[in-house]
């Protein structure tokens, strides 16, 4: 039987882009997702882009009996790419138990079945949030993990520890944690992209929603940071570049090229971009004028963070290639596609 790759949360933003790259690299993919933050349009988009419809099972990864039936049905799974999680920093502050329950239980359940069913490999979605405000920039994987500033951030730290401890006790299991910086943009086809629910917390969806008229203006949170233009700095990487890194990480495990049972890689462009530079890039790439105003800093924001990605560049042979302007243009094309789809459906 053909070996299969299980992608949890594969209908979501980063998962759907990764499924496209997996299918285009010849992998057989099974997605599980409970659609708590996504919808089936993404599966149609994946099929339209690749000409293949991945297997899909709607289930909650926190539900052990659903997972048990799933692993009885699919016995050829060789590796798991684990995206399924809740990801809103602000919601996690308001409802920490929801975050601890979903993010931790899902990961513990998967590790349990990896042991039980001899599924040796996992690629895990971690985050630059584990670094907080780093002492040195760019921040490398060797930098200390700082006390988390939100329950969401804490779930990523604890999940990394749970994975690491489990691998120590069960050396037949191997995992790679990928610490993403700020994923942005959409597939160049504009058939899949990010689907923020409610008012987006994140900068790029707020920019595109403002430009299309959903919001009157973008609020730039702070221009008094210790940065060249006073606005906060991040490392924005295109979601397709990020998706490709998952395929490379998976192949590293499958080909047994990993140098330790548990490895961690930063994934970013390795360069800092300020909020004001991001706005300039959006305007340059799309020809749209963005209405924005400077307001106070947002509570809990770090001032500046960008990644040292040299370890991923060297060890994975992976490098982010898509420019910020192209990422902005792809986010804009996706926003316009969403508007068109909404108009057709109303
Ligand atoms: P997303 O919300 O678009 O995708 C997550 C998917 O998981 C959704 O389709 C959701 O329905 C599903 N899901 C959630 N809980 C589930 C459960 N218990 N059972 C089954 N399905 C479940 O988010 P995303 O942006 O694609 O993020 C994917 C992963 O990457 C997450 O682990 C997130 O924490 C991590 N991450 C995201 C970012 C970012 O800025 N987007 C940055 C760093 C890390
Ligand atoms: C980027 C910059 C804002 C919105 C979050 C999570 C982190 C990770 C990535 C998952 C900041 C500024 C934003 C707006 C603004 N996710 N901004 N006006 O804060 O780097 O990180 O997403 O792991 O855990 O915390 O991303 O997109 O929210 O903000 O000025 O309306 O844009 O202040 O400087 P952030 P973001």
Mean of all residue-level pLDDT scores? 97
Instruction: Give the strand tally.
Output: 13
Shape: globular
The secondary structure category is alpha/beta
Largest sheet: 7 strands, parallel
Backbone CA Rg? 19 Å
Per DSSP, what share of the residues sits in E-state strands of 2 or more residues? 15-25%
- The helix content is 40-55%
Bound ligand species: nicotinamide-adenine-dinucleotide, UDP-4-deoxy-4-formamido-beta-L-arabinopyranose
- N-end to C-end Cα span: 45 Å
**Major sheet strand order:** 3-2-1-4-5-6-11
Can you tell me the residue ranges where pLDDT is under 50 for at least 5 consecutive residues?
none
Query: How many H/I helices?
Result: 11
SSE sequence, one letter per element: EHEHEHEHHEHEEHEEEHEEHEHH
Structural descriptors:
binds UDP-4-deoxy-4-formamido-beta-L-arabinopyranose; two-stranded parallel ribbon; alpha/beta; 13 strands; 346 residues; seven-stranded parallel beta sheet; binds nicotinamide-adenine-dinucleotide
